[in-house]
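User: Okay, second chain of the day. Same drill as before: sequence in, structure tokens out.
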Amino acid sequence: MSTDKIDMNDIRSYFAEKLEQHGATPRGVDWNSNGAQDTRFMQLARIIDRPERPYSLLDYGSGFGSFYDYLVNQGVRPQRYVGFDIVEGMVVKGRELHAGIEGVEFSQTDDNLPVCDYVVASGIFNIKLDTEYDTWTEYVIKTITRMNDLADRGFSVNFLTKYSDADHMRPDLYYADPGYLFDICKRRFSRNVAILHDYDLYDFTLLVRKKLD
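Assistant: Same drill. Structure tokens below.
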């Protein structure tokens, strides 16, 4: 199936509406709370294996830069942070909130994104709307392949899990198979891959390490 069948304008509109409704808050990027967002950020940040050294980070689907703020609060600020998001309002808000901060930039276009030490993505695959499951899975693989290409040391990404309670699952959300994506990453990207599925939320995080020095 072709990912051309996915209408990204619908996805853009969905998140633009969330930002308009809730502003620069976790709900503005469709998370329920600060606590849940920080828990997910903690897992994603585990890809940063040498935070004491200067490093660059690409936040793929950055929203307005909350992951950057999390890293600063943890004392592991990246030397260069690049936030990429397909929603214009997110990019505008990100630039507004981080105006004048050296080493921080935001982009709405994927074409000229730089290779960074690390790439992270949080929640970018959760909302599939009415896209067929297999079509969305193809889009997921295409996107994490792009993330791999842009990551020098490694990347991390989270997904809703197929092991969610059936009575709480929604047809507009994408529930990924951890084992399937682990196999894809292991075969295509690196022999050093981890699944984090032990932090009491109905999702999981993949860590793909490309360098261990």
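Residues 98 and 104 are 7 Å apart (CA to CA).

User: Thanks, on to the next one.
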